[in-house]
Amino acid sequence: MHPRLAEAKTLLSRLVAFDSVSDRSNLPVIDFIESYLAGHGAASRRAPNAEGDKAAILASIGPRADGGVVLSGHTDVVPIAGQPWSSDPYSLREKDGLLYARGACDMKGFDACVLAMAPALQAAALKRPVHIVLSYDEETTCLGSRDVIAWFGKDEPRPAAAIVGEPTMMAVADAHKSVASIRTTVIGHEAHSAMPQLGANAVAAAADIVSEIGRLAREYEKGPLDPRFTPPYSTLHVGRIQGGTARNILARECAFQWEFRGLPGAPTASALAKVAAYVDAVALPRLTRFVSDPTIATILEVDVPPLAAEPGSAAETLALMLVGSNRAVAVSYATESGHFQAAGIPTVVCGPGSIDQAHKPDEFVAESQLAACLAFLDRLAAELSR
User: Fold this and answer.
1) Of 106, 110, 159, 129, which Cα lies nearest the Cα of 42?
2) 230 and 360, same domain (yes or no)
3) Which CATH number does the domain housing residue 37 bear?
4) Which of 277, 304, 331 is the last residue of a domain?
């Protein structure tokens, strides 16, 4: 058993007790983290959002020098609504070496390990610093870390590498897909359903576009392919659609939300252009064949960049050495890693737990995974003390 495992579990119990679903303020959990770090001699700096109801936090331990390592996590979690949990999702439950709670795996387990290591990091003779970054809104926009990232190399020392602790079963992931959240709104023209020539059915037009997105999704299945990912192709998906007022009224409005998850090198703009071409050539002319005022508008709400593999980067070399492996993997889910990489900071993903447990009822992280993460952080501290 790792000597700091009990402290990590205690901290995890405290962290999961905060209901920090992304649509709510994360300031209570940030207050707790800031107080905990201050109690161990680590000062923190906040990066609030525009509304002031959320904040990311940066705490650096060690000398104020370039060449350190970022340990990045997020404080928000996904909702529990409609999920059949076996116990209180905000109360840590332990059974057979598994720790159950919302966020236990994704990703307060990593956060707890990093915080549990703060006293050891303070006591170590670090020659390069550890930068602890804990963000907000990762589960919705992945934008909550960008203000802190912008500090590095300006008014904060520039790190040599970043490790984002999303669940990978402590494997080192050097690549992940992008994810874009997109909303299309169709405005038609109401009329009696018995007189379709007097109106424009927004639901029908939306259904046509959704069908085309499905066809394009099948085209992406044919390639380009990258066998490192599961599935090995870029994906399109429509997750929500809403419109119309009654069965016998041509719908005036229909909106649907869809996403594109692209392999590195497959830009979101290419998927948007393909859908836009169909809208311009087919959907809009069909919608306006009787009346001229209907419109179709598509908005890119969020575009999270991919993490592109950089073989031999400082982050990959360091992380592989710390886990004792010579091979990196790729993951299909998106993280904040792409923002670090876009800022010129070599980045990998490596954290405790399995993504298979994330976002589900009875989410859990294994105690053994927390112990492995703590051992990883021990080795990191030793490496930064050389």
Assistant:
1) 129
2) no
3) 3.40.630.10
4) 304
**Residues 160/153, Cβ–Cβ less than 8 Å:** no
What does the pLDDT look like over 263-272, one tens digit per residue? 999 999 999 9
Number of domains forming the structure of the chain: 2
Other Cβ atoms within 10 Å of 58 Cβ, number: 23
Q: Based on the domain organization, do 291 and 235 belong to the same domain?
A: yes
CA separation, residue 249 to residues 6, 246, 308 (Å): 62, 5, 48
What is the per-residue pLDDT across 12-59, written as a single tens digit (0 to 9) for each? 999 999 999 999 999 999 999 999 999 999 999 999 999 999 999 999
Domain limits at 255?
Answer: 179-304
63 by DSSP, 3-state: which? coil
DSSP string, 230-299: SSSS-EEEEEEEEE-S-TTB--SEEEEEEEEEPPTT--HHHHHHHHHHHIIIIIHHHHTSS-S--EEEEE
Cα dist from 323 to 67, 160, 174, 319, whole Å = 20, 18, 14, 6
pLDDT digits (tens, 9 = 90+) for 118-151: 999 999 999 999 999 999 999 999 999 999 999 9
> H or E element: which one contains 321?
helix 314-323
pLDDT at residue 1 greater than cutoff 80: no
DSSP 128-177: S-EEEEEES-TTTTS-TTHHHHHHBTTTBPPPSEEEE---STT--EEEE-
Residues 6+ apart with CB under 8 A from 262: 177, 178, 180, 234, 268, 270, 271, 306
Q: Look up the pTM and report it.
A: 0.93
Return the number of other C-beta atoms located less than 10 Å from residue 13's C-beta: 18
Q: Identify the band that residue 350 occupies on the pLDDT scale cut at 50, 70 and 90.
A: very high
Domain-ending residue, one of 304, 327, 346? 304
* Distance of alpha carbon 221 from alpha carbon 231, whole angstroms: 9
Nearest Cα neighbor of 29 from 146, 112, 149, 94 is: 112
Instruction: Please tell me whether residues 163 and 94 are part of one structural domain.
Output: yes
196 and 338 housed in the same domain: no
Least Cα distance to 362 among 113, 20, 18, 99 occurs for 99
What is the mean pLDDT of the segment spanning 375-382?
Answer: 98
Has residue 98 got a pLDDT over 90? Answer: yes
Q: Which of 250, 11, 26, 9 lies closest to 136, judged by CA?
A: 26
